[in-house]
Amino acid sequence: MDSTQALPEQALIDQLVQHHAGQAGSLLPLLHDIQDKLGFIPASSVASIAEGLNLSRAEVHGVITYYHYFRSTAPGKHVIQVCRAEACQSCGGEALWDLAEKLLGCKAHENSANGMFSLEPVYCLGLCASSPAVQIGEKLHARVNETKFTRLVQALESAS
Amino acid sequence: MSITIFVPCDSAAIAAGADEVVDAIHKEAAARGLAIDVQRNSSRGLFWLEPLVEVLTAQGRVAYGPVAFEDVPSLFEADFLRGAQHPLCLGLTEAIPYLAKQQRLTFARMGVTRPLSLDDYAAHGGWVGLKNALAMQGDAVVQTLLDSGLRGRGGAAFPAGIKWRTVRATTAAQKYVVCNADEGDSGTFSDRMTMEGDPYMLIEGMAIAGLAVGATQGYIYIRSEYPHAISSMNTAVALAESAGYLGSNVLGSGQAFHLHVRKAAGSYVCGEETAMLESIEGKRGLVRAKPPLPALQGLFGQPTVINNVITLASVPIIMAKGAAFYKDFGMGRSTGTLPFQITGNILQGGLVERAFGLTLRELLFEFGGGSRSGRPIKAVQVGGPLGAYVPESQWDVPMDYEAYAAMGAVVGHGGIVVHDDSANMSKLARYAMEFCAIESCGKCTPCRIGSTRGVETIDRIVTAANKEQQVHLLRDLCDTMLHGSLCAMGGMTPYPVLSALNHYPADFGLAPAVAPAT
User: How many CB pairs under 8 A join A and B?
Assistant: First the structure.
């Protein structure tokens, strides 16, 4: 099953590379497209991206690893972003972060042992007047206290 | 006849449960057999009241908030569709003091219109500025901007007209307009609100910029943390293009302006203009040395106007009502209005657009209503993560660029983060250095190494016996970062660090005499 899955993945990457090749400054849009489709940017894709956009592999690797948003490993089923910036700190954001680490059983940029969750710090979601803020998958949550956070995580756990 | 109800689609309203409220309203109306028309408007920016539900009545819009989906049946029961009384009723929206006391120029449509409706935009003063600009020579447009005194709202406060004049005067086969929408400062959301809530205003401002300087291509660089803003801008650009406001023949003028939305990837330093250009070009976000100025050699090496979202969004009203109208607001060399954003530990957090010159105390208490926790406010960080902590002794200084610079602080992008007396200022100073270490692009040494050494030195000030020596070291390090860094990332991290040290020495375990205010 693994070998049949690997093939369409590479085909998809090649297709996306072709779509973006030849356009000015297309590396970031291409990487976004790959991550949107696959959830991450596989290390194996670096060579074909580099060849398709006429860049060195070092340049492609450099860009993937420079930007916090791009990930080289598969995320958990739910990516939980907890804001750690000042406006959230002023309303209990740090306690919320500690709770997230405890509840999910993982640290920043890690996946939980059961693969359910990825925990990511984020520096501002633009919800600073309704802090602390959390984003789970695509969904934003404002004024998240510890009770609300626990409830959100439990709801995801019981839904799976 | 159906009754019109407004529920905002701003992400701060959605994060507070606006979508669930809409579902509940539809469900309840259906159960009662009532005809309603729910419109998703932008947010008024009164975020402690979100989701703010408004009902259109003969007297005007009546507001209810904050509405949870559980409140919806009781609203119907109280006959809110006729603007009736209810514990959540706030009266006429326009009369809510927080809103009534503002001077909304740039944010005039905010909360009033549906963000993506071209009809709403045109009906509320949209495209007047662009049409006026098309009837003028490029030089006259640039002169109008110069006369308005508009300065960069992203933080650096550089006169926008001078940038435009420089790019206009340069000859090149291709010029660009780039909108910096990498609003990474904690405590700010005015760019996000603009892109989500009034995207055509930004498009109009960029089109005017393009026509004025002779640029046919524009980019909007939006941070990846703003998915709603990206989606709203993408749709708005497509709709504006099909309606002829963008494209190869802007409003039949024969002049072209094409607009592209670029998604950033979570790097704070890409809000620095040259790092942003590198990022749009598809590279790591490394800061460029200046000169050359981006106005002469910017995106892809070509002359480029780079302005922040609010700067460009302020252009349409200036072109619509004239430089003199805009310049009439503000004080000294800080002309016009600024959308201040009151955030953090504050009871009534939100957006307050006012002319420069009001005080922090007015914002904190007359608008903000004091801290959310009910405890005394201890420190207020103005101007984002690179802005100084402002102690109570300075809360009566009028907010304008020069007055704030004179006391070693910055107005920046107008973000205001409030901390109550439970805040530990040595921890916040340490965080400022830590954030700089995480986000430094690594190109220059003072920022790359200095930030890590700064974290260590602050730790030693708090824990070690030889505090005086460590304070001396920290000041020396800050001096190096301030004067030796390539950009504001390393160059301004000393602002929060030193202001915390100078104004709150007790939090570092220091006696006041050890840390004289400078």
Answer: 149
